[in-house]
Amino acid sequence: MNTTPLAALNHIPPHLHTIADYQKQAQLHLDAATWANLEGAAGDEYSLNNNLRAFADIQLLPRHLNTFAGANTQIQLLGEQYPHPIFLAPVAYQQLFHPQGEIATAQAAAALQAPMILSHLSTTSMSTLNQVSGAAKWFQLYWQGSRKAALDLIFQAQHYAYQAIVLTVDAPHMGIRDRERRAAFQLPAHIRAVYQSSVNTTPLKENQHPLFDGLMQQAATWEDIAWLLQHSPLPILLKGILHPADAQQAYQYGAHGIIVSNHGGRILDTAVSPIQILGTMRKILSHDFPILLDSGIRRGTDIFKALALGASAVLVGRPYIYGLAVAGALGAAHSIKLLKEEFEVTMALMGTSCIKQINSSYIYHQNS
Question: Model pTM greater than 0.85?
Answer without folding.
Answer: yes
